[in-house]
Design goal:
By secondary structure, the protein is mainly alpha-helical. It has seven helices and no strands.
């Protein structure tokens, strides 16, 4: 696990704990007066709850700001053409121009300015923080891919990771399209 990922996990854990503490404190402030607890204890609990809420806001705000700064690195890149993206993908990988263009267009449509700046090595969740910033955009992207692939679909690769890099997404779409074309050609030849 990289240092950034550990920091992210720790900050998320701290923020979750602080929010839980604030919620439990609020619940106790509702229940404890019914049990006739001394007023001094209730005041102390209220102070602790307010402190927890303020610290939670600070931690969550700092985390959000750190993620925004991290994403700015990607937005500072120059947009890539399909040809430049193919060069980044590597010479040993063959992806049809149609598949590459279609997948990159879907990414641009779903992820906005970030979509045409993606390179093959970008990890969609760890690097781009799509689940943190716009989980619905990532879901829309994969739904669009599914709709586009479905007529060409054979079977997804069972080795395909759950959180792939953008390059792996492009390669998997190419494999699915290529396999579908082979089967269609085979079926056409069988009927002749």
């Amino acid at each position: 696990m990289a240092n950034d990922e550990r920091l992210s996990l720790n900050v998320n854990t701290i923020a979750t704990g602080l929010v839980a503490f604030t919620g439990i404190s609020a619940l106790l402030l509702i229940v404890l007066p019914l049990l006739e607890v001394p007023e001094e204890l209730l005041m102390l609990l209220a102070l602790a709850m307010c402190s927890g809420a303020v610290v939670s806001c600070i931690v969550i705000g700092a985390r959000y700001d750190w993620l925004r700064w991290d994403r700015r690195r990607f937005l500072a890149r120059s947009p890539l053409t399909d040809k430049e993206f193919m060069e980044c993908l590597g010479g040993d990988v063959q992806v049809s121009p149609e598949v590459l263009h279609q997948v990159r267009q879907m990414a641009a449509r779903c992820f906005g300015r970030l979509g045409d700046r993606l390179v093959p090595s970008d990890r969609l969740d760890e690097d781009l923080h799509l689940s943190d910033f716009s989980p619905w955009a990532a879901e829309n992207f994969f739904d669009d891919l599914n709709e586009w692939i479905r007529p060409r679909l054979v079977e997804p690769d069972p080795e395909f990771r759950e959180t792939p890099t953008f390059g792996e997404v492009v390669i998997e779409v190419q494999r699915l399209v290529k396999d579908a074309r082979k089967i269609i050609l085979h079926l056409v030849q069988m009927t002749i």
